Amino acid sequence: MPEGDTVYRAAGRLRNALVGQVFTRTDFRVPALATVDLSGRSVSGVRSRGKHLLIDVDGEHGIVSIHSHLGMDGAWDVYGVGARWRRPGFKARIVLDTNVSQCVGFELPVLELLTDADTALSYLGPDLLGPDWDAAQAVTLIAARPDALIGSALLDQRLMAGVGNVYRSEICFLRGVLPTRPVSEVEISPLVDLSRKLLYANRNRVERVTTGNTRRGQQLWVYGRRAQPCRRCGTPITRDTLGENGMERVVYFCPRCQT
Ligand SMILES: [Zn+2]
């Protein structure tokens, strides 16, 4: 599942492929952008902001940014010119060609053009993998929601940007707190520091690891491990859901190690 680390890595790949290059063809396969043509324009930068990805394109009237969000299943692939895609073509939402590569975004629930991306994304909290990461600000923003459940606060991108569903379960386990505890009962600063540490450690890894053990099946403490024994105490891991903005999202925890 794409989280801040996934998007950071995708931005790196796209940056290597696109910055300084000129689009020879662009194909937006979403109705709202079907007539957009950015061919002949050059890419000045690629950035990630939490779980959002921005491709900045130069133009006559300033920079326009291709904004995408990977959602649950989205991905950006970089291919050599003429190479066969690794995913089905009908899932492609955008195809960007240059003389040296082809970048394809698949299953992107958000794809739009922004003329002022910084303002449009200013609602996001400090970016865990951003050059301007500000731990103190994240702590302040989270602490200002004392009644929120900590599991929900960790996913709230307005408070801190980058944590997704996998990390929030892992972070709560590692701090020994139940995701349903209110923010007011949790030490926020170590939780924020741990979030940064985990995402930073995984920023260049293809497979996410929170246990320190890179062997397949050993990489996570609790996420996806329903009814399997806790790696610390042997108690079966519990799977439950927490409501976020009217949407139920799954959460995993050890009912013994976490209180
Ligand atoms: Zn346990």
Tell me the strand order in the biggest sheet: 1-6-7-5
Multimerization status: single chain
Describe the largest sheet: 4 strands, antiparallel
Distance between the termini: 26 Å
> Under CATH, the topology of the largest domain is which?
Helicase, Ruva Protein, domain 3
The CATH class label of the largest domain is Mainly Alpha
Q: Would you kindly provide a written description of the structure presented here, covering whatever features stand out?
A:
The protein folds into 2 domains: 4-120, MutM-like, N-terminal (N-terminal domain of MutM-like DNA repair proteins); 135-253, Orthogonal Bundle (Helicase, Ruva Protein, domain 3), CATH 1.10.8.50. Helices cover 23% and strands 23% of the residues. The chain contains 6 helices and 10 strands, in the order αββββββββαααααββ. The protein has helices at residues 4-18, 117-120, 135-143, 150-155, 165-175, 188-201; strands at residues 25-28, 43-49, 52-57, 64-69, 75-80, 92-97, 101-106, 110-114, 238-244, 247-253. The strands form 3 sheets. It has a 4-stranded antiparallel sheet with strand order 1-6-7-5, with helices on one face. It is globular. The structure holds zinc ion. Zinc ion is lined by residues 230, 232-233, 235, 254, 256-257.
